[in-house]
């Protein structure tokens, strides 16, 4: 099934208002704004040009969620991920457990970090805050220039120090069942901006699509009047098939935008991206 056939089917299935928009019965403002945004997403999915044409397959449709919603955060803008800022207590020295993930344990990384400190010149007994800031990055994300030799359980070992953030990620992604590890993962994690959609809530393939060089995010940010002009001016750049899709949504977008413009709304992206 190509995009165009898919497009027609999606249009029929979309949970968009079935009735033509009527400003006398405009209903909820959020509903009106959302409807325009959904029609625009659809338009981008169907006729948007992608830098990488292989990603021109939009799987984002589901009856329960908006079309083209980011599947990493399910449109919530955030995901729970490791927060590096929590992983080092810089007021402590390495001796007193500045690298919190391993502080107070006798795991191999404790010995490795001690050897690493000696190797690159971190003062083991001095608070990290009083030392070169680059040491913090190394402790968090690793040291790639040379491997560290250390002794653990009376055995000599040599390996690269990959950083406590990486260690914790490995633990998490390997599906650790250890209570202590799970506690650590919870402790060092928090809600962070979703990297897949950069907080836009939309699927990366939708974000990558452009119409007349504009992404969906650029378009949603346009002042309503400019957005109207953009929509009205689209036919010039569309081929026959694209025009077919456009004609199915154009009136519904336009009627709502005229109404939103009349009541004085500035843009569809209310207070976003500021
Ligand atoms: Zn996301």
List the helices and strands and how they pair.
Elements: H1 3-13, H2 29-47, E1 49-50, E2 78-82, H3 108-120, H4 134-141, E3 143-152, E4 155-161, H5 164-173, H6 179-188, E5 189-193, H7 204-208, E6 209-211, E7 214-215, H8 216-221, H9 224-233, H10 240-263
Antiparallel strand pairs: 1-6, 2-5, 3-4, 6-7
Helix pairs in contact: 1-10, 2-10, 5-6, 9-10
Write up this protein.
There is one protein chain. The chain has 274 residues and is α+β, with helices and mostly antiparallel strands. The protein folds into 2 domains: 6-75 and 199-262, ABC transporter ATPase  like domain (ABC transporter ATPase like fold, Up-down Bundle); 84-193, ABC transporter ATPase domain-like (Helicase, Ruva Protein, domain 3, Orthogonal Bundle). It is built from 10 helices and 7 strands. The chain has helices spanning 3-13, 29-47, 108-120, 134-141, 164-173, 179-188, 204-208, 216-221, 224-233, 240-263, and strands spanning 49-50, 78-82, 143-152, 155-161, 189-193, 209-211, 214-215. It has a 3-stranded antiparallel beta sheet with strand order 1-6-7. A hairpin with a 2-residue loop joins β6 (209-211) and β7. The chain is elongated, with a radius of gyration of 26 Å. 27% of the residues are buried. Residues 1-9 and 59-65 have low confidence and may be disordered. It binds zinc ion. Zinc ion binds at residues 70, 72-73, 194, 196-197, 201.
């Amino acid at each position: 099934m190509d995009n165009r056939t898919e497009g027609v089917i999606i249009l029929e299935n979309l949970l968009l208002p079935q009735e033509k928009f009527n400003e006398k019965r405009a209903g909820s403002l959020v509903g009106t704004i959302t409807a325009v945004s959904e029609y625009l997403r659809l338009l981008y999915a169907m006729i948007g040009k992608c830098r990488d044409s292989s990603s021109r397959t939009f799987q984002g449709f589901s009856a329960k969620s908006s079309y083209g919603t980011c599947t990493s955060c399910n449109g919530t803008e955030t995901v729970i991920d490791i927060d590096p800022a929590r992983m080092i207590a810089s007021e402590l020295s390495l001796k007193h457990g500045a690298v919190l993930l391993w502080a107070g344990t006798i795991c191999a990384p404790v010995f490795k970090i001690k050897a690493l400190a000696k190797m690159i010149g971190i003062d083991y007994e001095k608070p990290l805050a009083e030392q070169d800031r680059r040491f913090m990055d190394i402790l968090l994300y690793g040291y790639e220039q040379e491997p560290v030799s250390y002794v653990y359980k009376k055995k000599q070992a040599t390996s690269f120090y990959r950083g406590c953030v990486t260690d914790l990620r490995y633990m998490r992604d390997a599906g650790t069942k250890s209570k202590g590890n799970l506690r650590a993962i919870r402790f060092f994690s928090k809600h962070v901006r979703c990297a897949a959609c950069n907080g836009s809530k939309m699927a990366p393939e939708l974000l990558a699509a452009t119409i007349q060089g504009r992404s969906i995010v650029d378009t949603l940010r346009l002042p309503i009047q400019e957005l109207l002009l953009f929509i009205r001016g689209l036919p010039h750049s569309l081929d026959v098939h694209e025009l077919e899709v456009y004609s199915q949504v154009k009136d519904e977008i336009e009627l709502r935008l005229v109404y939103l413009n009349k009541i004085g709304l500035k843009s569809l992206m209310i207070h976003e991206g500021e």
